[in-house]
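Memo to structure team: turn this sequence into structure tokens by end of day. - J.P.
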Amino acid sequence: MSSNRLSRGLNGKDLITVGIFSAVYFVINFAFMLLSALHPILWILMPGFIAVFSGIPFLLMCTKVQKPGGVLLMGVITGLIYFVTGMFTVIILVTFVIACALAELSRAMMKYASFKGNLAAFVMFSLGMTGSPLPIWLTRDSFFAQISSQGMPESYIETLKAISSPTMLIVLFAAPVIGAFIGAYIAKGMFKKHFIKAGIV
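Reply from structure team:
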């Protein structure tokens, strides 16, 4: 990738590409958010599950948009959709800002066409979703009071209280890292087997 092309920044085609894959990413997010209502453990593990299934759209976006700002824009679009749907919190804003900044740094340091660089970016980006369950630990009392007032079943709340130990906080952060590695290598296999042959990447 030449420095001249990088210096031009994102163009209209890039913005559309990022927008499309951001929408796909959010659909995956939303599906696992719905599933997390079945049991609290699914909510804590949600960032990991999302990472496993979002490897293909994220890596495809990185392959097609080998420029600064693509991952950051994906994070901004995801955040805006969260805001519009009423699922936005300050904590998830903070985690996504940090995650996107580190992801952009990873891509820049390892060059935009590097699988290792994009893998590192995906790990960082996936950690951004820890901001969804993180209030369980950071603002515990007010968080449980809030979800109780919103009509969350008492059985769900009590189970969530019981399993949200310091050990599970470690699991919360480990899950998206492991999930991102799995998702990235699934994507890499799919690229070789299908997308490259089809001329998609």
